[in-house]
Amino acid sequence: MFETLPLAIDKVEFSSKDIIAYTIDGQPINWGEILARLDFWKSQLGNLSQIKVAVYHSDAVEFLCILLILWSLKKIPVVPANTLEKTLRAVKKETDYCIGEFPEVTSSQNIDSEQEVSSSDKKSSTHALIIFTSGSSGEPKAVYKTFKQLNSELKILENQWGNLLTDTLTLGTVSHHHMFGIQFRLLWPFVSKRPFVNKDIIYFEQLLQLSKYRICLVSSPAHLEHIPKTMAWSELQKSMKMVFSAGAPLPKNASLEVNKNMGVFVTEIYGSTETGAVSHRDQTKDPLWNPLKGISVKKIDNKLAIKSPAAIDKGWYVSEDLCEIYSQGHFSLKGRADNIIKVGGKRVSKAAIESSLKEHPLVEKAFVIFLEKRKNRVGAVIQLTRTGSVELIDKGKIAFQKSLLSCLRGNIENVAWPRYWRFVPKMPVNQQGKIKSTELEELFDKKN
Question: What are the φ and ψ backbone dihedral angles of 352, each rounded to 5 degrees?
Fold first, then answer.
């Protein structure tokens, strides 16, 4: 049975003993317990005058209960990715009423309950939630999602993989405060009547506590690139059913390592907060992306255009991702259109510079930054392999930089070669595996 959002709580086909979720140590949480929590949150929220309410709770069960009550009251949850000061400033532009786990936030009743609710989807009148993107740079951006968009994506996911996930337990390292997490880790299993784990997995060793279940793991490169090699994976291999990864591309060697240890291939997901899930791949077999059932793609002005009911009602959603389209709708990504920078009068792709630098055998990761404060020059942040780190110390920074520049010769015009370099032991990434460019930009503000 597949439910549709928003749920009519009194009409949901659960019995009080049906298991909805599990705690991190494997204790079941049944529908009867969920109903008690729904009653509690209704008592807390029943008299609200605000239309929009900020929601943050680390427990996915509590978070779900708050959503269900707000939806039953015709309210719109506002879901921040975190509770950092910068994010909360963006939240305040939507609402100043907060519920859940917010740091010393006092809610007030001065928001106009009749204020206009805007959306990129102007034709839809039923908004399910407002969720903030967790991009690696810039201010947090509010994205309005309708029930139609959420339900369309959930049906697409179930149609694509539902028959493979029978009797599985869904858990993840990805927060349910992000679009990937809220759909894959929480709402999809819930509406499909498959249990989920109420807390984030922090350490892979926690999987061992749940090894008696058939596990569907929702994760990201930030975690899958660093799975512990000394863990007793043989105890888990019979339990692992599927591994989903999204937020950033997963290096092929990491995908192979996951398969070696967990016994399943990683299903990578490409999509965005605005579009929902768009395509999938297992790059150990094919590096190209394959659109999900019911989704079409094409190229418009070299950008990937997406036709999906989870994105917009009609027409094509044009992304900022540059692409190449192949047979049967398969495609490859060629960097971001908004990553084109102008250096010395030349238009250059940051992704092209990064790709060339990563061809160096001693480079693990590369990230390019356009330095407006340094006469519009290019800076590069490099994460080296272990051997590369040793060679950097032995040869010195200047000699090593010359070695890196040799990868750019013939591929990148000289004017766009990096003039400033920073070497880091590890790229800072968020929970979705996206590089935190703002932290890297700060490296060039320091007088090293």
Answer: -65, -40
Q: Are 97 and 70 in contact (CB under 8 A)?
A: no
Q: What is the pLDDT of residues 366-387, one digit of tens each?
A: 999 989 888 788 999 999 999 9
Encode pLDDT of 250-265 as tens digits. 989 999 999 999 999 9
- Statement to judge: residues 117 and 213 lie in one domain: no
Please say which residue of 337, 363, 388 terminates a domain.
Answer: 337
Q: Is residue 176 part of a domain?
A: no
Same domain, 16 and 155: no
pLDDT at 396: 94
Report percent pLDDT > 90 for the chain.
73
**Nearest-CA neighbor of 263 among 242, 280, 248, 249?**
242
Side-by-side strand order, sheet with 317-325:
296-300, 303-307, 317-325, 331-336
**Tokens read off for 385:** 């392999």
Cis peptide before 251 (omega within 30 of 0): no
Are 305 and 214 members of one domain?
yes
| Range 317-334 average pLDDT | 94
pLDDT, tens digit, for every residue of 179-229?
999 999 999 999 999 999 999 999 999 999 999 999 999 999 889 988 998
Asked if 297 and 319 count as a contact pair (C-beta separation under 8 A), the reply is: no
**Domain span including residue 310:** 150-161+202-337
Residue 68 confidence (pLDDT) above 60: yes
**Cβ-count burial 77-112 (b if 16+ within 10 Å, e if not):** bbbbbbbeeebbebbeebbbbbbbebeebebeeebe
pLDDT above 60: residue 120: no
Q: What b/e string do you get for 224-263 counting C-beta neighbours within 10 Å, with b at 16 or more? A: bbebeeeeebeebeebbbbbbbbbbbbbeebbebbeebbb
Global model pTM greater than 0.70: yes
Same domain (yes/no): 267, 356? no
> Edge-to-edge strand order for the sheet containing 196-197?
28-30, 19-22, 196-197, 168-172, 214-219, 240-245, 266-272, 276-281, 290-291
| CB proximity list for 340: less than 8 A, separation 6 or greater | 347, 348, 349, 350
Structure tokens at 66: 């708050």
Give the Cα separation of 441 and 280 in Å (integer). Answer: 31
